[in-house]
Amino acid sequence: MKPESIVLAVAGMCFGVILGWVLATLNVGRTAPVAAPVVSSQAQEAPPGNERQPAQLDEAQVQALTTILKNDPKNAGAAAQLGETYFKAEHMDEAITWYRKALELDPKNVDASTQLGMSYFIAQGAEPALAQFEHSLQMQPNHPRTLLSKGIVLWRGKNDLAGAAAVWKKLVEVAPDSPEALAANEGLRAISASGDNGSSGGASSQ
């Protein structure tokens, strides 16, 4: 997937921006590198009369992956990709179902676990998302996408700017060349511009 330019707005982040930022580093079950998202000041809430259009579900992809799973019910990769397909289309209930299935088949799939957490965040709120991220971090304490996603939820879901900054600083330290670290740096700059340098209250969020 070739990510488009997205925005982390200081004053507020709409659903589409949250989703776009996550999709920019989404790589469930794949090894190809993903380009870093570019954060600019043009991604704030859409003006009246120019509302963001919901993503379209790739029905052909759903059918193809469903066929694979019918023939091979234990195919964890196909289940994770089906979760990804629904996540991209903003069908969070179905995404949750298939990410859970992928984890049943492959409990060590940290990418699927983290995307399940983001699906929880969008559909159910911050608490179940953060709990799922802790599960991911038990598997891989320095997993870049989990750290990026945890920072997003701490900031946007818990209004914990210091906690988000602490997590993102850790991400930049442990994986400085990753696309997630580039996104985290943009988030850190946005937090700094908002007047909170993240110097307090974040240690317990790591």
Write the layout of secondary structure elements.
Layout: H1 15-24, H2 59-71, H3 76-88, H4 92-105, H5 110-124, H6 126-139, H7 144-158, H8 161-174, H9 179-193
Helix pairs in contact: 2-3, 3-4, 4-5, 5-6, 5-7, 6-7, 7-8, 7-9, 8-9
Describe this protein with a few key phrases.
206 residues, mainly alpha, Serine Threonine Protein Phosphatase 5, Tetratricopeptide repeat, 9 helices, 60% helix, disordered C terminus
Task: Explain what this protein looks like in three dimensions.
Mean pLDDT is 78; it is low at 1-15, 27-50 and 199-204. Helix 4 packs antiparallel against helix 5, helix 7 packs parallel to helix 9 (179-193) and helix 8 packs antiparallel against helix 9. This protein starts with 14 loop residues before the first helix and ends in a 13-residue tail after the last helix. It has a domain at 57-125: Tetratricopeptide repeat domain (Serine Threonine Protein Phosphatase 5, Tetratricopeptide repeat, Alpha Horseshoe), CATH 1.25.40.10. It is elongated and about 55 Å long. The chain contains 9 helices and no strands. Helix content is 60%, strand content 0%. It has 206 residues and is an all-alpha fold. The protein has helices at 15-24, 59-71, 76-88, 92-105, 110-124, 126-139, 144-158, 161-174, 179-193.
